[in-house]
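Bit of a strange request maybe. I'm writing a small parser for structure token strings and I need a real example to test against, not something I typed by hand. Could someone generate the tokens for this chain?
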Amino acid sequence: MPRLAGYTKVVAIAALAAGVWAQQPKTPAGELIGVFAYINHQVLDMAKDFPADKYDYKLRPEMRTFGAVIVHIASGNVYAAKAGRGEKVKWDELDPANYKTKEQVVALLEKSIADATATLKSRPADSFHKSVEPWIDVIEHSGEHYGLLVAYYRANGMVPPASRKK
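Reply from user aminoacidic:
Good idea to test on real output. This should exercise your parser:
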């Protein structure tokens, strides 16, 4: 009986492996869309989860507040959407002072994600064989700031959403 169970496991693993190998390789467009969505989902979860009364918290006096970091990330998404549409654009930092509440900051981030995602998905798939800019820069930028936001959580004795036990 143990030998039969062993064979069953081998067959199951082989079937899973065959399914994975049979999948088509991802395209650059598909990879970018997936990674862009992933990092923005992580940041949006934090923006929604972090307490409103701590949105003005700074790790150090010379640093941005938690809310200002979220606005800064949204600025990157706005830049990507414009550049991705072929607009002549420079990084225009959105002013965090214009977003006074958690609700306003979260709404800004959601809109920036939706706009940038729509632009990203509208690009012809073959355009990414020539260049993955500005998307790769904005993904990397958001990832850096995601790490910073983790520090804001930890400094407040909190566990970031992605690190919580499921």
